[in-house]
Amino acid sequence: MDNYHTPVLLKESVDGLDINPSGIYADLTFGGGGHSREILARLNNKGKLFGFDQDADAAKNAIEDKRFIFVRSNFCFIQNFLRYYGIDKLDGILADLGVSSHHFDEPERGFSFRFGGILDMRMNQNSELTAKDILNSYDEEKLSDVFFYYGELPNARRIARTIVEQRKVKEFGDIQSFIEVLQPLIGNEHEKKALAKIFQALRIEVNDEMSSLKKMLLSTSKVLKENGRISIITYHSLEDRLVKNYMKTGNFEGKVEKDFFGNTCPPFKLITNKITTPNEEEVTKNPRSRSAKLRVASRTSF
Fold this sequence. Notes:
This protein is of the alpha/beta class. It folds into 2 domains: 10-101 and 209-299, 3-Layer(aba) Sandwich (Rossmann fold); 108-207, DNA polymerase, domain 1. Helices cover 42% and strands 14% of the residues. The protein has a 7-stranded mixed sheet, sandwiched between helices. β2 (48-52), α3 and β3 (68-71) form a beta-alpha-beta unit. α7 (140-151) packs across α8, α7 (140-151) packs across α10 (191-207) and α11 (209-223) runs parallel beside α12 (237-249).
């Protein structure tokens, strides 16, 4: 487990749940099980924890504990599975939206531009769509949208046009040849930052991450008990914006909506307006935690 992924903001995120020892909780991004083990350590023998992860590799880390149930599924289906297991409401939900160290460090998964390997990027390896498919089949406009909206790249159109022209000569298959095509567009000075954004955009599209996140957030307000806690760690502005807006207003646009009497009825109440970020010591030990932001909220009355 330790080599699989180092949990980010471990104590802070679990502290945010204000654990009820006899409560029922869900870790929606099980991964290596670091956050789940910390939750289990705070539960008594009546407590229960569900760990969700769509990746077969994560399933190998499932914890042998009668209080723990592993669910191999995308977290957007949380409501369906809780119904299947006869669970009406949860006391708390935790989600760490970052890509695990394991995914970045396994070349055959294709998540990192630091290694060779094929252009895959699937979280769920039973899914059909890969990064290779996107690069070889999406038209210029669709590719441009992926890089602009999910990578926030100002030269998205130029990147898309170059990809379309290049694949007429030879289809994309491996990471290294893809990077070589990108090289004239990104230069050397900001190469790593630009590549990170391009790979992020492809990963989000491959895994339909924004849509899944929205579905998950909408489900949380239905499955949490009144005053139940939600603790979410985000890493990039796209997902953080969705989480922040939904927690504050109950919608993804951040629009404050009022009822007939002029009252606002957000599904959550922020525990604190201050965002929790990793301290210097954690960032030094785990550089990938640098961009992490923790937001914690409680379910308001129905």
